[in-house]
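Dear colleague,

Thank you for sharing your sequence with our group. We've completed the structure prediction you requested, and as agreed, I am returning the results in plain text so they can be pasted directly into your records. Please verify that the sequence below matches your submission; if there's any discrepancy, let me know and we will rerun it promptly.
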Amino acid sequence: MANSVNLAIIVGRLGQDPELRSTPMGDSVCTLNVATNERYKDRNEQWQEKTEWHRIVLWGSLAERASKTLTKGKRVYIEGRIQYRDYEKDGEKRYITEIRAVKMIPIDYERIQNEIAEEQVKYDAEIETDDDLPF
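Please find the predicted structure tokens below.
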């Protein structure tokens, strides 16, 4: 039965610039480390902040776009599925959890704020002043 869902949505900041590389077959793959923060009050009513790091893997044209548009500190929206892998290093088996992204949207708040400000200026210019009224 295929009635299951594996979906992760992450909105956070990049901890470092994207790392783009190619597989031996020539496929593009990009890895990102994205931080999410949670703020909460502890038992003593003191504010605490907890940061979680998420390893994101993007493939193909999505990987190439991420490497061109994202930089350390930028906000990003990621949608994908959680996957688990294991590998061996120095004779020791290691495990890794990552999100294989299917959607990546850079979040550029500064650009959005500038666009809103420009629209406000246009709107303000269109509003009639008392001097413009015919009575």
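Summary note from our side: The two ends are 73 Å apart (CA to CA).

Kind regards,
the structure core
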